[in-house]
From TrEMBL:
Keywords: Cell inner membrane, Cell membrane, Membrane, Transmembrane, Transmembrane helix, Transport. The keyword Ribonucleoprotein does not apply. InterPro entries: MFS (IPR011701), MFS_trans_sf (IPR036259), MFS_Transporter (IPR051788). It is found in: Cell inner membrane. It comes from the Bacteria. One of its GO terms (cellular component) is plasma membrane. It comes from Salmonella enterica I. This is Transporter. Belongs to the major facilitator superfamily.
């Protein structure tokens, strides 16, 4: 079964683009998170980027969009997003860092079991539905990230000497 007019061998290359995107994200955010942005901003940015990219792949399926989209989704959805989420949740629950980490890891394990079952079924109907599912998860993540973002700036008072990129508007 083909998607976006790609042969199976070409479609397999998207995994390499995904992996490259993930690796690039790790290095970029390692530099940015030191002094420029907080993990909460990275979570919102990555979730929004993943949502837009999944929508583009679904609406305009072509080999170019799929390859570029694989890189961007690798960047936004795999490049350390788990660690960023754990970091933000640990700020909310500093006495329960181990619980936060274990909940994140358990949910990842559940997803690693359930999602292949769902996508396996969807692949029998049509591959575009897998992309649509990815879009739905990315959109849900983006909405959740915005809610956590708003809550973050209501709960935490950022000292004036530690204001970072874009935070003056949320003080």
């Amino acid at each position: 079964m083909a998607f976006a007019g790609m042969a199976e061998s070409d479609a397999l290359k998207t995994i390499s683009y995904y992996s490259m995107g993930s690796l690039v994200c790790v290095f970029i955010f390692a530099a940015l998170l030191k002094k420029m942005v907080r993990p909460i901003w990275a979570n919102v940015f990555n979730a929004g980027l993943a949502t837009l990219t999944a929508a583009a792949i679904y609406l305009y399926p072509s080999p170019l969009i799929c390859n570029a989209g694989a890189f961007v989704i690798g960047f936004s959805a795999a490049g350390g997003i788990l660690q960023l989420g754990v970091s933000v949740m640990s700020e909310f629950f500093p006495k329960s860092k181990a619980k936060v980490t274990s909940i994140y890891m358990m949910m990842g394990g559940v997803a690693n079991f359930i999602i292949p079952l769902i996508t396996g079924y969807l692949s029998t109907i049509g591959l575009q539905y897998i992309i649509l599912l990815d879009f739905a998860f990315a959109l849900l993540t983006f909405i959740t990230a915005i809610i956590v973002f708003i809550r973050y700036y209501r709960v935490f008072k950022i000292p004036q000497n530690d204001v970072r990129f874009g935070e003056r508007y949320f003080q």
